[in-house]
Task: inverse folding
């Protein structure tokens, strides 16, 4: 007759040979973060054993998944937002994550530019203007009239950042509308800064630039074709703009 001790021993032995799938029950996500993960599980992938919801370093909460992150903040309590793929990698590795570029205020979306570009909007605590991260595998066209392949900024991740006054003009103005893919990050120009974009609506592609004047706070748009406009001056004058070319 088999006694109770033998039955328990057999049960333990059987359990020992059962393979428990990793991530099957060893991790979970709850609340707004869990809801977003369920919504975009195909993009985010499974949760990771040992990765739990934690402080994001900017007053919010964040959890890492196989292909990205979900971030939530009490400043926008209704919904958490997902950051995944190339944008997620660059957000964390290059652009400082929630405490650097800021917390996501949208999910990833297709950019207005031609091609497979993806874009996401972020807002850093204390800032009034958002930052944008745009992923694009590169551009082929004319650069100052010369046919070349333009490598994207941060080539390891293929993600550019557009921010501050330049970002505001780039995203909101009728001339640009966020549809000009950035080909570099903002860089210093005597008296301010500049960032370059590709106008893919023209034959081939032309280089455009947006400049910011540190003294006047003017933000101006310049096209390689010679067209220019001061978006910060009600009169539209460009005399006090930083000329980029």
Result:
């Amino acid at each position: 007759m088999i006694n109770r001790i033998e039955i328990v021993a057999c049960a333990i032995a059987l359990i020992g040979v059962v393979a428990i799938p990793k991530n099957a029950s060893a991790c979970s996500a709850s609340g707004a973060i869990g809801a977003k993960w369920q919504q975009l599980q195909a993009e985010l992938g499974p949760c990771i054993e040992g990765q739990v919801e934690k402080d994001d370093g900017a007053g919010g909460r964040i959890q890492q998944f196989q292909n990205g992150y979900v971030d939530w903040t009490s400043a926008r309590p209704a919904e958490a937002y997902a950051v995944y793929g190339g944008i997620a990698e660059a957000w964390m590795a290059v652009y400082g994550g929630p405490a650097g570029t800021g917390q996501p205020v949208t999910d990833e979306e297709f950019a207005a530019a031609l091609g497979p570009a993806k874009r996401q909007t972020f807002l850093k605590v204390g800032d009034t203007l958002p930052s944008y991260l745009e992923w694009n595998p590169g551009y082929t066209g004319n650069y100052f009239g010369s046919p070349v392949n333009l490598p994207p900024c941060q080539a390891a991740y293929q993600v550019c950042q557009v921010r501050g006054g330049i970002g505001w003009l780039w995203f909101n103005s009728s001339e640009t509308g966020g549809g000009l893919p950035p080909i570099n990050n903002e860089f210093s120009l005597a008296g301010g800064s500049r960032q370059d974009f590709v106008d893919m609506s023209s034959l081939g592609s032309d280089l455009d630039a947006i400049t910011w004047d540190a003294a006047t706070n003017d933000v101006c748009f310049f096209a390689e074709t010679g067209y220019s406009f001061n978006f910060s001056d009600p009169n539209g004058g460009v005399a006090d703009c930083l000329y980029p070319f």
